[in-house]
Amino acid sequence: MPGSADPRSPSPGFGRVSGEHAQTFISIIKVLHSEPTAAAYGRLLKKTLEPDDYMLLAHLFEEISVLALHHLIPEALLFDAFAFDLYWDELREDVMALRAQTGNDKFCENFEIAAERARAYRTDRPPKLRWIRRGGEDAPPDPPGGLGVRPPGPRPHGAPARPRSEPVGHKDS
Fold first, then answer.
1. Where are the alpha helices (DSSP H) in 103-166?
2. Is 61 part of a structural domain of the chain?
């Protein structure tokens, strides 16, 4: 998606975030930080999942993914706050095993689709702190319109055709 690396404009297809989405987003956060989900979510973040955590989290992310894929909450908001692609990577084997065991190929399919879209979002939008903490050989180039030197643009309306070479406040003799 060309030009979407600019953090001020949303990537096409990931939706626009607005205040109307705040309540849904806060509700998702409350579910993730309340029991029985909170402990499992914490273990997911630390990559120390217990056997009962896998299906609890996979099904929860499936439900959240349905909201995003049906445009009830912008993917941009979810993918900026959560790492659905990395969560899928942790839970994938168990989901695939349960699909095979039950013959239900649709189990957590929305989560899988959202994870792939989150991966595209992550590729399109590198971590914000990457630009601030840049340096060394592996440093990325400056983002467009961000921390680099501003390229010359058109003169402001009403500006003199040619700037004066005298310092400001200099009086003509």
1. 109-124, 128-132
2. yes
